[in-house]
Design a protein that fits this description.
By secondary structure, this protein is of the alpha/beta class. 39% of the residues lie in helices and 17% in strands. Strands 4-10-9-8-7-5-6 form a 7-stranded mixed β-sheet, with helices on both faces. A 4-stranded mixed β-sheet has the order 1-2-3-13.
């Protein structure tokens, strides 16, 4: 009996024993294609020799030094590398241990910035429904997934949520993508005016929607309008690129494709590719300058921030991505994957949408394609697909509650950047079989439940 308090308290999990490239092997010797990189984490796959070597080398020097006493060469080098490739105006990096910590840090930086510049009345965040920003209380508050928020709601700060950019379900037939984006931006501006512009701290959004909505890309011009609105009212734009950033969508930062620079940007997952827990916040110079010329002290910190071994792993990951030209491969492999998914599922009666960017893509499952009607949540179609995929040696990242936290199912794919075209073909083949088997099990369960 496991003494670990697992996420799921019913059933048992296989135990991972090893991993190499895009494969994980369990203790029974079964091989799984890691087609989701865990949770879009393992961008270089498993056991990459350059990363492993960098970690060993750093452990031989120093494994840990608390950041209230020391910096380290490797942390400084990582920060220099990140800022050298950051969006315009970013001047500093705050290193943390993961995505939730990164978002939490960004929220606190936003608040302290306004206190430092003499606007302490700003206390309100705006975010989007069906977003996911992490599981700490601040990150959960800005997150817009009602299922995750519900039981903890009494503990959360008040946040106003506006519509996500969910073109498949929300763009009107009479609207162009650009007009739809303009309508969403107008909703944001109207919300700011209603709350009171001088009360709003910032707008927090995933550049490309991730876990809870399934690889939702923004429509053209949407984020440009959002940036303009934030500037108009002196509000900080906080980009959450924990899942979609660090090359996952084909550019190092997803905001590059939107031609904007946020004020604060949270990164993690692909930053260190899972070799060590690490995340970061990229910070605009004006925010750092306000704190430096004011209190001179960011009132925040965690024990393991700037961990030398984590920094060594992340630096090796980022240098490998750059050296091996993997961003171009993400774009090429992403196009190949989307083509194969279209071929396998474009006419499937239970696949309503195929969407995403680069190697962050998703299928949205529906019971009625014409009506875009979701399956009954009690059927847990996403969980059935996960089980059928694992039985076939395939790891995918499915989720329920895609539409509103209760209804809708999707399956997310986020394979490592090193994946080959033939491996992508195999992923799509196994996913197709898993979806077919899951839908068949739904039919069987209904037939069993229906009295003759």
């Amino acid at each position: 009996m496991s003494r670990i308090l697992h996420r799921q308290l019913r059933g048992t999990l296989p135990r991972a024993a090893g991993g190499h490239g895009i494969f994980i092997v369990d203790t029974a010797g079964k091989r799984y294609i890691d087609a989701s990189g865990g949770a879009a984490v393992s961008c270089l796959g498993h056991g990459h020799p350059d990363v492993v070597h960098a970690m060993h080398e750093q452990i031989d020097k120093i494994a840990y030094a608390h950041t209230s006493f020391f910096s380290t060469d490797v942390a400084e080098e990582l920060a220099d590398h990140l800022i050298a490739h950051a969006p315009t105006g970013m001047s500093h990096v705050y290193l943390v241990s993961g995505g939730s910590e990164a978002v939490e840090t960004a929220l606190k930086l936003a608040r302290q910035y306004f206190v430092e510049i003499g606007q302490p009345q700003r206390r309100h965040f705006i975010a989007r429904r069906q977003s996911y920003h992490g599981n700490t209380l601040g990150a959960l508050a800005v997150g817009g997934n009602e299922w995750r928020r519900r039981q903890f709601a009494p503990l959360l700060i008040g946040v106003t949520h506006v519509s996500p950019c969910y073109e498949y379900r929300d763009r009107r037939a009479s609207e162009s993508p650009e007009a739809y984006g303009a309508r969403l931006a107008q909703e944001l501006e109207d919300t700011i005016v209603r709350i009171g512009p001088d009360a709003v701290l910032g707008f927090c959004a995933e550049t490309v929607g991730g876990a809870t909505a399934g690889a939702l890309p923004p429509v053209p011009g949407y984020f440009r309008r959002v940036r303009d609105i934030c500037d108009r009212y002196g509000i900080l734009l906080i980009a959450d690129e924990v899942m979609c950033g660090m090359g996952r969508t084909g550019s190092l930062h997803a905001v590059e494709q939107e031609a904007i620079a946020p004020d604060l940007m949270a990164i993690a997952k692909g930053l260190g590719s899972g070799y060590q827990p690490i995340g970061a916040v990229l910070v605009q110079k004006k925010i750092v300058d306000a704190i430096a010329s004011g209190s001179g002290f960011f009132q925040h910190g965690h024990t393991y921030i700037g961990h030398p071994v984590a920094c060594a792993a992340a630096l090796a990951v980022q240098k490998t991505i750059q050296r091996d030209g993997l961003l171009g491969k993400v774009r090429d492999r992403g196009a190949h994957l989307m083509g194969r998914l279209d071929g396998a599922f474009a006419s499937h009666p239970n696949v309503g949408d195929i969407r995403g960017r680069g190697l962050l893509v998703a299928l949205e499952l529906v019971e009625d394609r014409a009506a875009k009607r979701a399956f009954d949540p009690s059927l847990r179609v996403h969980a059935r697909i996960k089980a059928e995929a694992m039985a076939r040696g395939l790891l995918v990242y499915p989720m329920g509650g895609t539409i509103d936290g209760a209804h809708g199912d999707h399956v997310l794919l986020a394979p490592p950047f090193i994946v080959t075209e033939s491996e992508l073909d195999l992923i799509v083949e196994r996913l197709h079989d898993a979806v077919e088997a899951a839908i068949a099990s739904v039919r069987e369960s209904r037939e069993t439940a229906t009295p003759r």
